[in-house]
Write a structure and sequence with these properties.
alpha/beta, 6-stranded parallel beta sheet, Rossmann fold, hydrolase, magnesium ion binding, 21 strands, globular, Myo_inos_IolD, TPP_enzyme_TPP-bd
């Protein structure tokens, strides 16, 4: 067996170049990088040498680069993942939040932060954190609780085992998540005689675990016995490519489908069996079905509290849970009966096992009435009052075609969008709501656009989230990845302000006008976006927004549309209780009343669980 002499950094790059997915595409199609003293001489030189074989993209912030990589993986339904490299110190710790985003959302991400010298001879180097009790610790140990796999490359030959392990995690449907390979700067530059076989092309097949026949029999028995079953479709449906299988299963057996944030677009909104989203920000139709359901069939969902209304939305005391999930950890939550398998394979096996069995569908008028409410909430307003988030959503729905992708993250918009957005095609609804990370939006849109170059990517972002992380708007212009941004200026954190008031509190420190200040905030967002190279304009009405969307679709580069909105209203129709703890003691009568309501909801939930 021959060998080739390369530095550890060169070996890592060469290894990544030859990894392929089952479609033959690069498993790692590119690297995001901000260089510093911990990676510029080692990985920087190796990436420069690789050129277009492993393209390197430069961002403006380490966290947002990782957000772009995460969104790329989500938009490809986990078929590909990007790498991100930074220096040691703040460059590395800036990525910890993004690593948590990937972990919670079960998305593949390869992080390669530089690390301090393995030899320890120059210690302490610039940016080094010294643990007084543990000489093996560096700042990269902060990644341990938010990484699915963590390794420190203390010797060049560690890559021989670490890199295949990393690829396993990135491609494993059950363990999928972020990988962190802490790479000391001296080790990056050390040479080693690598076996040539290490750089042979490798195909990573998408594993589809088949169910245990006993679990199929048990699941089929539960479905036959159920009078009012429902399906909760999660992100696992999309990642498995199980959209058609889900539709065939639901149609064959008359079972209503509801969708989580991650599962939205598993079925077109127009499908008569798609009753919308369940839970806190759910549709009235989905929650009406959930209230009576005696069997809840989760498919690729982890049953997050927004989906379940903090486990109060399923009110039938006879309710049982069946969890179809590739991950056994998620398959047994809250006493669920597990069916551990790939979503597509499991649905096909269940379909066969059920034969001609059909459940009784709820009154279709429930669904029809809900979409009438959606149309009312999203209709253009009369007069010159500040528009609501729902009215902006309606304008975007009318102004974009069915092939467009709506992308959003934290704040009040996800709640409104989950209720109101009509997704027509798979992956047309891209929401980061697992970690609910403000600042994901613009960087995420770049990643989504890179993954889906033929689809228009429309970002909805509030002024609060925009102010947290907007620098990658300049990156989108620089690298030619056009996105459309609708920036809703409600002068602060409107969502949390509403929650604060709903819990009996007074408006405090959320809206800019009521926060402590000397000079009132008055940011010209259109000028700011234009300064970063985007086409930017401010509109004064919903009709002007719709006209501006036409211009944005015709633009040759990123286009930002700013509109002032009302921070107080939200769509009253639909929705369910969400458990947010309210103080037991307060001088405010409003808080005491909110506490009474909170305890009443707790008692009601206890009665059904």
């Amino acid at each position: 067996m021959g060998t080739i002499r390369l530095t550890a950094a060169q070996a890592m790059v060469r290894f990544l170049i030859v990894q392929r997915n089952e479609e033959g595409a690069p498993l790692i199609p590119g690297v995001w990088a901000i260089f510093g003293h911990g990676n510029v001489a080692g990985l920087g030189e190796a990436l420069a040498e690789a050129g277009d074989a492993l393209p390197t993209w430069r961002g403006h912030n380490e966290q947002s680069m990782a957000h772009a990589a995460i969104a790329y993986a989500k938009a490809t339904n986990r078929r590909q993942a990007m790498a991100v490299t930074t220096s040691i110190g703040p460059g590395a710790t800036n990525m910890v939040t993004a690593c948590a985003v990937a972990h919670v959302n079960r998305l593949p991400l390869l992080l390669v932060p530089g690390d301090v010298f393995a030899t320890r001879q120059p210690d302490p180097v610039l940016q080094q954190i010294e643990d007084f009790d543990d000489g093996t610790v560096s700042v990269n140990d902060c990644f341990r609780p938010v990484a699915r796999y963590f390794d420190r490359i203390g010797r060049a030959e560690h890559l021989l085992s670490a890199l295949p392990r990393a690829m396993r995690v990135l491609t494993d449907p059950a363990d999928c998540g972020p990988v962190v390979l802490a790479f000391p700067q001296d080790v990056q530059t050390e040479a080693y005689d690598w076996p040539e076989s290490f750089f042979a092309e490798r195909i990573w097949q998408r594993r589809r675990p088949h169910p245990d026949p006993r679990e199929i029999d048990r699941a089929a028995e539960m479905i036959r016995a159920a009078k009012t079953p429902m399906i909760v479709a999660g992100g696992g449906v999309l990642y498995s490519g199980a959209m058609d299988a889900l539709k065939r299963f639901a149609d064959a057996h008359n079972i209503v489908v509801t969708e989580t944030h991650a599962g939205r677009s598993a079925l077109p909104w127009s499908d008569p069996l798609n009753f919308g989203a369940p839970g806190v920000c759910g549709s009235a139709a989905a929650n009406a079905v959930a209230e009576k359901a005696d069997l809840v069939i989760g498919v690729g969902t982890r049953f997050q509290d927004f989906t379940t209304g903090s486990w109060a939305v399923f009110k039938n005391p006879e309710r049982r849970l069946l969890a179809i999930n590739v991950c056994s950890y998620d398959g047994i939550k809250h006493g669920a009966v597990p069916l551990i398998a790939d979503a597509k394979v499991a649905l096909e096996a269940l379909d066969a096992a059920l034969g001609q069995h059909k459940a009784t569908l709820p009154d279709p008028a429930i669904r029809e009435d809900w979409f009438k409410e959606v149309d009312r909430a999203t209709a253009a307003p009369h007069g010159n009052a500040l528009p609501t988030d729902a009215q902006v959503i309606g304008a975007a729905q009318r102004g974009l075609d069915e092939n467009a992708v709506l992308l959003c993250a934290s704040g009040g918009l996800p709640g409104e969008l989950q209720k109101l957005w009509k997704a027509s095609k798979p992956n047309g609804y891209h929401m980061e709501y697992g970690y609910s990370c403000m600042g994901y939006e613009i960087a995420g849109a770049i990643g989504a656009k890179m993954a889906m170059p033929d689809r228009e990517i429309c970002v909805m972002v509030g002024d609060g989230s925009y102010m947290m992380m907007n620098s990658e708007l300049a990156t989108s212009v620089m690298i030619g990845q056009k996105i459309i941004v609708i920036l809703l200026d409600n002068r602060g954190f409107g969502c949390i302000n509403r929650l604060q008031m709903a819990c009996g509190g007074k408006s405090f420190n959320n809206l800019l006008d009521t926060a402590r200040h000397v000079v009132p905030s008055n940011i010209d967002f259109a000028a700011h976006a234009a300064a970063m190279g985007a086409i930017a304009e401010k509109v004064d009405s919903i009709s002007e927004l719709e006209e501006a969307l036409g211009r944005a679709r015709a633009s040759d580069r990123s286009h930002v549309i700013v509109i002032d909105t009302d921070p107080l209203p939200s769509t009253e129709a639909g929705g369910a209780w969400w458990e947010v703890a309210v103080p037991e003691v307060s001088n405010r009568a409003e808080v005491r009343k909110a506490r009474d309501d909170y305890e009443a909801h707790l008692a009601a939930r206890k009665a059904i669980n």
